[in-house]
Amino acid sequence: MNLEELRNQIDQVDQDIIQLLEKRMTIVQKISEVKEAQGHNILDSTREQEVLNRAQQAIKIPAYQETILQTYQDIMKNSREYQSKARLK
Predict the structure, then answer these.
(1) Could you give the dihedral angle defined by the CA atoms of residues 21, 27, 46 and 36, in that order, rounded to the nearest 10 degrees?
(2) Contact call for residues 26 and 81 (beta carbons, < 8 A)
C-alpha cells in the first residue's frame, strides 16, 4: 500500500470516529441534564475509572495501551468541560 492509500484509510477512520464522538457527546449532553436536575457533580471519578478499566481490557495491541488510555482521559476531560460550560448557559 502506498502513502496516499493509507491516508485515505485514515480519512475514513476519522469520519467514523467523528460520528461516534458526536453520538457520545449527544449522550453526554443528556447525562449533563440529568446530573444537573438531580444535583450531581459533573465529575464522577468512580465512573471514569470504570470507563478506563473497560477500555484497557478492550485494547488488543499492548503497544497502543498508553496512547489509547490517554485519549480516553482526554475525551472524558473534554466531556466534563463541555458539561461545565453547558451549566453556565
Answers:
(1) 130
(2) no
Q: What is the 3-state secondary structure (H, E, C) of the chain?
A: CCHHHHHHHHHHHHHHHHHHHHHHHHHHHHHHHHHHHHCCCCCCHHHHHHHHHHHHHHCCCHHHHHHHHHHHHHHHHHHHHHHHHHHHC
* pTM of the full structure: 0.91
Q: State pLDDT tens for residues 5-46.
A: 999 999 999 999 999 999 999 999 999 999 999 999 999 999
C-alpha cell at 20: 461516534
In the numeric block, which cell numbers belong to residue 18? Answer: 467523528
